Amino acid sequence: MEFGIATLSVIPVRSKPGHEYELVNQLLFGETYTIDESQGKWLRITSDYDNYSGWINEKQNNFITEQQFKSYRTSVKYITAELVQTISNNSKSFPVLMGSTLYEFDGMNCKLLKENYVYAGQVIIQSSENKKPELIKKLALKFLNAPYLWGGRTAFGIDCSGFTQVVFKVGGINLPRDAYQQAEHGKTINFIYEAKEGDLAFFDNEEERITHTGIISGENEIIHASGKVRSDTIDHHGIFNKELKKYTHKLRIIKRMI
Hints:
Blueprint: E1 2-5, E2 10-14, E3 23-28, E4 32-39, E5 42-47, E6 53-57, E7 63-64, H1 66-74, E8 78-80, E9 84-88, E10 93-97, E11 101-102, E12 109-112, E13 115-119, E14 123-125, H2 133-142, E15 153-154, E16 157-158, H3 160-170, H4 179-182, E17 187-189, E18 200-204, E19 210-218, E20 221-226, E21 228-234, E22 238-241, E23 246-256
């Protein structure tokens, strides 16, 4: 088995080996993955963070050894908390996005492979002490008006479960990639009036499959990605879209992750 690490701002992960195929996920700077197979100029990878598989172009791959992979997996991780901030060294400069992973960070400097970088943005160390509902809400609000993108995980395009996953990653809680997978975690909250900020609400379709999720941001308020990241009203029926003046998502279950 071979291993890799994302050294670009974001790497698209597609459903099949080709640029024309559906975007299903994205790798953020500093995230590691295994390489399961190759087909032409494409590699099928599995993200170490959420065990999600898909295809990346070989030009965007950066191989690491198994020893390096294990070292990055177990090392202290610093997660970027800015929507976008520049990282740089003597030879290059590029943006990193919220939820990216820095290693050996001392408050200004970090290192990835043999490269030393300077990063001046806000960073949160992965720690149980940082798991706070008020932090989840604060991070979620930063994404307001970010455009919806199926498979996206950044402020330049994000889907509903990518939004919740990245926000909770920065907040110190690992979530799976898809909404139905996320719904399998946490403590069930039986009534909407018992929900608190930072809880996750899940919604199903006509076939009773969970297809949508969002973050409770206050009493009867939810932040979610639907067309864009937006704030709407929620009650025991579901999400009421303030602009369309109608219910758009049917509530299935509420989970408390903190």
